[in-house]
Write a structure and sequence with these properties.
With 667 residues, this protein is α+β, with helices and mostly antiparallel strands. The protein folds into four domains: 3-167, Glutaredoxin, CATH 3.40.30; 195-302 and 317-385, no CATH class; 390-578, Glycosyltransferase (Alpha/alpha barrel); 581-663, Glutaredoxin. The protein has 25 helices and 21 strands. Helix 4 (63-72) packs parallel to helix 6 (133-146), helix 11 (266-283) packs parallel to helix 16 (394-410) and helix 18 crosses helix 20 (524-539).
């Protein structure tokens, strides 16, 4: 066993028995590299990464490769999900050096941590134009011993490029109320009208894009709604969705969503749930409601810890084979189903593959899951499940809190909001230091790693959604506290925006970085625009709105023509630019008149509206301290009253739900 045996990360523990003398990231590893005068081999991946498993099996578990590595390098393993700052820094280096990146990420660097060569997956032996580790490691060793100055010169060039990239500011862009529509118009040419989604293959869910498209539809783009409906339906019916156990796989390897890469990530479940909830609110199509609830079912059944936190991911592999848990033979299906169920199955499902089938639905199918799926799920339980990464990450949990809260509110299912409350309470109790500072990772009874900007803003977003699902002021108070802490720890007073790492955190070679681009997960700064603008709406404080504007000014003008990389930013910006609406309902939360008003708006698509509840049954409600403008709001004629203000213009309060809806622009 190497030094990784003492770590908590499931990914690092996967490599604890390798013959490679792995060390975790830290001062000891760098000190050893300097003392031995050796280069460092840095390997970055994550526990459910299929090609990470392949390289581990071919190279890191191989005695010959391990011997060469141990003689040549000080080798460091990093879990990218535990240390997104390290991953972001060295992924940028790889992209600068090679033009591409991915995982496993393989970095060859000096004892000071500066890269001089980079790549992703390397096989054991060279073949078909791809260098293998058996040839690459001796070559690096030779260069280090005989032509080190050239390597150091290359490292210096990369270091300068990294520093320049981190410091570069694209300048101010002029975005306006039509920017969301303009951005989605640019998306239209990339849309796959035949299969739904964007691009060809591999094809990713890109949930943030559909959140943006729905906002563009609200501003008048019918094409935006058409793209959203087609893609969400195709994904739910495709093999990229687990038809038997629910939940979405990470991406499809084909354009038609039929053949997935089988790992399941928590962040995909959260963001897709949000997209399906909003699609249901916008269209009333029950297909979207069922899809969102299926995601919730999967997460609460298979991805939830006993203490309320949500696990990170499930692997693609089981029993050494990718996707084995999810594949079916015709004989297995016939053995699992009754005659009538088999007829239903054949009318509903198709299979992709030879011998072993990946199930997907006919694109026209709209029937809800039932006894067929239950029988197949029961049959599948006898199989060995894929490995599960059971660490709890504050940022990804924040996204899941937002999703469950929004789903619980929209569908009037308090159990979903309650699950979000349990998770939020868990993080606030367990994923913090003794002085209340947020931590990034919790696993096996240990919370560790100082939180990143993503942790603060994603969690605060989740808490803001949780308030609007439960109307418990505690969640608002905690959300605002987290926002204020994030500003104190991550804000750039010179250029605006949030750095990824805290001002007192451990540094990496080069300048602190800000992330702007949205990928599978939104960037911290994109979510910060939404969170800061929302807090400004709730508190009436212009300070938060001004700070949101400073973040907006970081984004490049070219973002409008590259909405796939800035989708969540435009989703957030569309709320920031307004016009926005504030709805305050004053009354006794337990009375039917308040409940009727809340029920009327919870099912509606109101992305520009913040909803507050002022309980008149309390002598000094906390919401009046958080949102001072509500202080004078009270009952009207002894009944619950709705106060609607849009773009700083207020309507008269009303007791009538129908009048409230008209004031909100709804029939």
């Amino acid at each position: 066993m190497n030094a990784l045996q003492f770590e908590k990360s499931p990914y690092l523990l996967q490599h604890a028995a390798n013959p490679v003398d792995w060390l975790p990231w830290g001062d000891e590893a760098f000190r050893k590299a300097r003392e031995l005068n050796r280069p460092i081999f840095l390997s970055i991946g994550y526990s459910t990464c299929h090609w990470c498993h392949v390289m581990a099996h071919e190279c890191f578990q191989d005695d010959q490769v391990a011997r060469l590595m141990n003689e040549t390098f000080v080798s460091i393993k990093v879990d990218r999900e535990e240390r997104p700052d390290i991953d972001s820094h060295y992924m940028t280096a790889c992209q600068l050096m090679t033009g591409s990146g991915g995982w496993p990420l393989s970095i060859f660097m000096t004892p000071e941590g500066t890269p001089f060569f980079a790549g992703t997956y390397f096989p054991r032996e060279s073949a078909y134009g791809h260098v293998g580790m058996l040839d690459l490691v001796p070559r690096v060793r030779e260069l280090w011993e005989t032509r080190r100055n050239e390597l150091l010169s290359s490292a210096a060039t990369v270091s300068a490029a990294l520093s320049e990239e981190a410091r570069s500011s694209p300048g101010e862009a002029t975005f306006g109320p039509g920017s969301a529509v303009t951005a989605t118009q640019a998306l239209s040419s990339d849309f796959d009208d035949a299969n739904g989604g964007f691009g060809s293959a591999p094809k990713f869910p890109m949930a943030s894009v559909y959140l943006l498209l729905l906002r563009a539809w609200r501003r008048g783009s019918l094409r935006a709604l058409e793209m959203t409906e087609r893609a969400l339906r195709a994904m739910r019916n495709g093999g990229v969705h687990d038809q038997v156990g629910f939940g979405f796989h990470r991406y499809s390897t084909d354009p038609a969503w039929r053949v997935p890469h089988f790992e399941k990530m928590l962040y995909d479940q959260a963001l897709l749930c949000l997209a399906y909830v909003d699609a249901w609110r916008a269209t009333g199509n029950d297909f979207h409601r069922r899809a969102a609830l299926e995601i919730c079912t999967y997460v609460l059944r298979d991805m939830t810890a006993a203490d309320g936190g949500f696990f990170s991911a499930e692997d693609a592999d089981s029993e050494g084979e990718e996707g084995k848990f999810y594949l079916w033979s015709r004989a297995e299906i016939e053995a699992a189903l009754s005659g009538e169920q088999l007829r239903q199955f054949d009318a509903t499902y198709k299979g992709e593959g030879q011998g072993h089938l990946i199930l997907y639905r006919d694109a026209r199918q709209d029937a809800p899951p039932g006894s067929v799926e239950e029988a197949l799920r029961a049959r599948r339980q006898s199989r060995q499940r894929p490995g599960r990464d059971d660490k709890v990450l504050s940022d990804w949990n924040g996204l899941m809190i937002a999703a469950l809260a929004r789903a619980g509110s929209a569908f009037e299912q308090p159990a979903l909001a309650q699950a979000a409350c349990r998770c939020a309470d868990f993080l606030l109790r367990k994923a913090v230091t003794s002085d209340g500072r947020l931590l990034h990772r919790y696993r096996d009874g240990e919370a560790a790693i100082g939180a990143f900007a993503e942790d603060y803003v994603f969690f605060s977003w989740g808490l803001l959604e949780l308030y609007q699902a439960t109307f418990q002021p505690r969640w608002l108070q905690e959300a605002i506290r987290l926002v204020d802490d994030a500003l104190a720890l991550f804000w750039d007073p010179q250029g605006g925006g949030l750095f990824q790492t805290a001002n007192d955190g451990p540094g990496l070679p080069g300048a602190r970085r800000k992330t702007l681009r949205d990928g599978a997960i939104p960037s911290a700064n994109s979510v910060a625009v939404l969170v800061l603008a929302t807090v400004a709406e709730i508190t009436g404080s212009e300070k938060y709105r001004s700070l949101a504007g400073e973040v907006v000014r970081l984004y490049p003008p070219a973002a409008e023509s590259n909405a796939l990389s800035f989708s969540f930013f435009f989703y957030a910006f569309d709320f920031f630019i307004g016009p926005t609406t504030q709805l305050v309902i004053a009354g006794d939360p337990d009375k039917p008149d308040v409940q009727a008003m809340l029920a009327a708006v919870r099912s509606r698509y109101l992305p520009d509206t913040t909803i507050l509840l002022k309980p008149t049954s309390e002598p000094s409600p906390a919401i009046a301290r958080i949102a001072p403008f509500t202080s004078s709001y009270g009952l009207l004629n002894g009944k619950a009253a709705a106060y609607v203000c849009r773009d700083r213009t207020c309507d008269l309060p009303t007791n009538e739900t129908e009048v409230m809806l008209r004031n909100l622009g709804l029939s």
